[in-house]
Structure formats: C-alpha cells, structure tokens
Amino acid sequence: MKDTSEIFGENVFSLSVMKARLPKETFKEVKAAIDNGKRLSDEAASVVANEMKQWAIEKGATHYTHWFQPMTGYTSEKHDSFVNPTDDGNIILRFSGKALTQGEPDASSFPSGGLRATFEARGYTAWDPTSYAFIKEGVLCIPTAFCSYGGEALDKKIPLLRSMEALNKQALRVLKLFGNEDVSSVKTTVGPEQEYFLIDEKGYNARRDLIYTGRTLFGAVPPKGQQMEDHYFGAIKPRVQAFMKDLNDELWKLGILATTEHNEVAPSQHELAPIFTTTNIATDHNQLTMEIMKKVAQKHGLVCLLHEKPFAGVNGSGKHNNWSMSTDTGANLLEPGETPYENAQFLLILTAVIKAVDDYQDMLRISVASAGNDHRLGANEAPPAVISIFLGSELTEILEAIVKDEPYGAKEKELLKVGVHVLPKFPKDTTDRNRTSPFAFTGNKFEFRMLGSAASVALPNTVLNTAVAESLRQFADKLEGVSDFTTALHDLIKEEITAHQRIIFNGNGYDDAWIEEAEKRGLSNLRTLPDAVKHYMDDKNVALFTSHKVYSEIEMQSRHEVFLEKYTKLIDIEAKTMLEMAKQDILPAVNAYSSELASSTENVFAQETLDEITADLTSAYGSYKALKAAVEKSDEIEDLVEKADFFKDEILKDMTELRTSCDKLEEETAAEYWPFPTYGDLLFAVR
C-alpha cells in the first residue's frame, strides 16, 4: 500500500513531471509561461502535448478534455479521445499542440448574459499553463479559460487571471518604492476552508426538495439539533471517517493540499481545509474538491450537501476565503515584520486593503451573493450582510496613533512616525480571533468569511484583487517621485486611515447594535442578492474593472444579467417544488390521517388533534393557493430586475407561509403517515 508521499500528485502533470520528461529548452519555455505569463511557442506546445499524451496514456487515460469554469458556478468538460484513424483501417493515438492550447465548446448553451445568442455558438477554451493538467477518472483534464468568438470572457477564470495581473502590476510599483528591486512578481494566495453536510443516500432519495434544490423546503426542527454543542470538533463517526480517508486520498492524488478535517457545529456538518496556494490554482482545486466530495460520498452510501442552508433551524455552510499576498522571493506582504523597513511597507499594504474594502464594500457583498447565501448571512452562524474589517486591538491602536499623531505604547517618547517606531516586534497572534467579522485579519492574512459553501472562490478573489490593485495604484501615483518619501508615506497612511476608519470594527458582528452603528457610519447593508446587485453597474464599479482591464463594460452587463437570471430561476424551481410536494405528498397524507381521526371522534385525543389539524390544513391549503398564484404571476414578468424583486418580496414570503403551515402539520401528523424523512431522520442517520 502506497503512503501519502507516494500518492501525492501522482495524477498531476506537475512541474517535476515536466522537468523529467520535457527537453530542457521546452521546459524553460513552459517555466517562463508559468512564472512570467510568456506565450508558449507552437513548437514547444507540440512537444508538451506529445509528452502529456504519453504520460496520460501510461496512467490509463483514453480521452482528454478542456476543463473550464463557465458562469454556471460549476465546471464543464467535453471528452475527446486520443484515437485518430489511419488509411489502412487502424488507429493512431494523437494529441497535437493545437488540441492542447485551444478547444471549441458550444458557447451558446452556457449562461452568457447576452454575450452569445443561440445562433452564435462558437466559443473557445484556451490552456492555462499556470494550472497543471491532471487525470480524473481516466480522462486527461487540461485547465482552460473560456471566451466567446469575439474574445469576451464567458467564465470565471479569465477575469480572475486578469485581476491577478492587475494586482501584480500595481504591487510591484509600490514595492519598488521600498527598494525591493529583486522582486519580479507578486501573487495572491488563497486557502478556502470548505464546510459541507453528509446525509444518508436513502433519506436524500426520498426527498424531492433535496434532489431538485439541494435544500429542504419543509421540515420541523427536531427536539435535538445543535443546542448541546456536542458535535463541533467531536469524535468523527466511523462512516464519516471512512469517507474522509477516501476523500483525502483522491485529493492528494490530484496534488490538492487537503490537511484539516473536523466536525462542524450542526449535526452531520463537517469541514475540510487546504494549505494556501496561488489563487487561480486554489480556485481550480476548490472546484475539484467540491466535485470529488460528492463522488466519494456516493461510494459510501452518502450524499454531500453543499447548499448554504440545507436545513432551517441549524447552522448553514460557508467557505472561508483566507487571502494573502506573496512575492516570488518568498515574502508575505501581510506579515507585519520586525524592522522599521518591513513595518512601513506592511502598514502601507494594510492601508491599501482597508481602503479597498471600504471603497468597494458593495462589490465584495455582490461577490458572495446567491439565493442560497441569502438564507445564511446575518444569522448567528455567519457574518452580517454589512461589510467590516476586524484588525484586533493592537493594530487598531497603532493606526489610531498614526491618525492622531500621538505616541503609541507606554514606553514611547516620540511621536509615532511610520517606519520608525511602529511594530518593533509584532507577534503573529497579538489578538483574539473574531468569528463574527466578515473580513478579519488573522496574523498574516485576511479571512473573508462571507462566501457560501457552494460558491466558486473566483469572483470574490477577482473583486478583492482588483480593489486592492486600485488602492495600490493610487498610492504609487502619490508616492513616486516625492522628495521626502518617509514624510509623504506617513501623511498618506494617516490620510487614508482617517478616511476609512469607519470600516474597522472589532466587536460582535452578530449584535443588533452593530447594525445600527454601521448605518450611522454610512456602511451599506445589502441584505439580499437583488438589493446588492442593483449596485453592480454603479459608475465607480464599472470604472474600477474597466480601468484595470479585468472586465469590459459589456462583460459586466452580462454578469449583472446572469446574477438575476440565476436567482430567479433557482427560487422558481424551489417554489414549484414546494407546490408539488404540498399538493402530491403533504396535503394528501394529512388528509388521510384526518380521515382516520374522524372515525374516532369519541376519543378526546382524536377529536382535539383533528380540530388542530383541520385548522392548519385549511391554512396550508390557503398558503398553497397563494404561492401558486404568485408563481403564475411571476411567469408574466419579463424585466429581470422587477422579476428578482418580485421573487424576493412576494414568492419567498409565500414560500415561508406555506412552510410554516406544513411544518406545524408535520408535528401534528402520525409518523407513519408523514410522506418523507424528517429532519431527525436526515441529521442523525449517519453513524
């Protein structure tokens, strides 16, 4: 049996594999493409393709695919075999440089927000050499970007790569001001922690709501949920442990650095955390992780639920996006450091992040918006919909001292000046963690905690990278060429922290008092996706992304449409599923039980229960008719903004009323009559 070190990366056409198999000159070209974004020559691409094919065939692969990430939020692939016919009726296994670098899937069948019409089918996938090819289930998968015939981005990867280039360009300008002449690139790194539920497959298959929507649309809260706080970090059940072992093996084979696993707060909820890696690779790895979780779960008779709120009344699932910036020389730019030189640079980078989060709090909120995440944000399980930054007491006091031009610390005799008396030895864990903060500094990185568990991490990091790039651009413009750099730096940090202090909050984000305080500070509270997405095309946001060439205006318009389309379609499916389950399952089951009770009315229990059920059944049927009428009305609304608002304000309200009535009926109906597994059955079946 192979140990972990032997299986790790065995299915990845990694740098070490390429170094061993490719000619030296070809390997140099590939390395330059990975490190510096240089275009690979056609000759080198052909050599790489041939060696990649041979390696894949040795691993048992018969097909290849361009693996990409359209705006569905999932991954896509079209398999082609290596087989090519010969004139004598035989075959030859062939894979050209052109097949490696470019593919052509149908671009009209994916969400495009109007970028592609049905009759305009042509689209292209282009190899991303910075993310290694891998073998999955006998298929060579080549990570690619996906664009239209006209060159517009149709996926989540192209904007992410553009945002990384934008941040690299501006960060290098700033680092040069501090004499970092040896730094040639700055990359953002990400470690996305992934929460998920595991339930028994039999229970899943008996619930149409889980099958169609990924969440339970009905369900009374059981007597025992998470209130005993006994599941978090508890002993992992044998069946779950077996799943986790197989999951780790599959992830390690693909070079995915999964390290931490544990039980989460809610029953049947768990978490997996990886080691940091470059942002676009981390994005690819997280998409793979979610896919493999589902497949491995099936092998164990389980189903992995990634919906943000699969069960009402217990915690939902998020994804914590741990974000940092690193140089090619190995320096973490969010590491405070121990020398005045490092301190000053750190404080400027920190200030850039603070400014970016404040200036583009609406875009960060939009980046995590989804119909599922709307159920989770703002509850006592996730950050509120208000964006704020947690820095901890020491960093906050240092910034306040800079703003006030006051000494910092009891022993400090001189006024605090950036790069002279700041952070002489700043310990990594200088303050407590704050799990209620949407955006928390945790020693040498920021943890963006608002992402939903099913989300791709591409968009939040695209927004974060671009916003920080804009802050750095403005800082470089002001500092380049000044005669007194130290004074100019101090004045700049003081000015920017003064302007953006409102975004810093170290208290309890779950407290209602904070929401009131945030409103006084002028912070936005965009509670739902329709509320948030209304700001997507604001002038400042369009200017941000177009100026850094991350999106064109037409690409932004398309994504605005995709946001609204996906939201309305998802809730429409949920509403129609509720109607189907209520009419075909719940109401007939309760009616049958009522008939039995009616035959025993001399029994006090039967009579009183029948009275309760009759009233609630009447209420439930009224709610059913109201929801049905609302859904029919929604079909007539064509304007996407108006339609999204109608779903938010009317459909969801009617869905809640129908659920409330039906959940009461569940508590009143004999178990043998209830038509599908209850919350108790689902949450406690896995042992």
Question: In a nutshell, what does this entry contain?
Answer:
This protein has about 675 residues and is α+β, with helices and mostly antiparallel strands.
Return the CATH topology of the largest domain: Creatine Kinase, Chain A, domain 2
Beta fraction: 5-15%
Number of domains: 3
The unreliable regions are: 410-415
CATH class of the largest domain: Alpha Beta
Rg from alpha-carbon coordinates: 28 Å
Global mean pLDDT? 90
**CATH arch. level architecture of the largest domain:** 2-Layer Sandwich
| Shape category | globular
Task: Report the span from N to C terminus.
Answer: 27 Å
Q: Main β-sheet: number of strands, strand sense, barrel status? A: 9 strands, mixed
How would you sum up this structure, described in words?
This protein has 687 residues and is α+β, with helices and mostly antiparallel strands. The chain is 48% helix and 13% strand. It contains 22 helices and 17 strands. The chain has helices spanning 4-7, 15-21, 24-36, 42-58, 97-101, 157-177, 201-205, 208-213, 238-253, 279-299, 340-359, 361-367, 393-404, 458-479, 485-500, 512-521, 529-533, 539-547, 553-598, 604-634, 640-668, 679-683, and strands at residues 63-67, 79-81, 83-85, 91-93, 102-103, 123-127, 134-136, 139-148, 186-200, 258-263, 269-274, 277-278, 302-305, 318-327, 389-390, 439-441, 446-452. Strands 9, 10, 11, 12, 13, 14, 15, 16 and 17 form a nine-stranded mixed sheet that branches. Strand 3 and strand 4 form a beta hairpin.
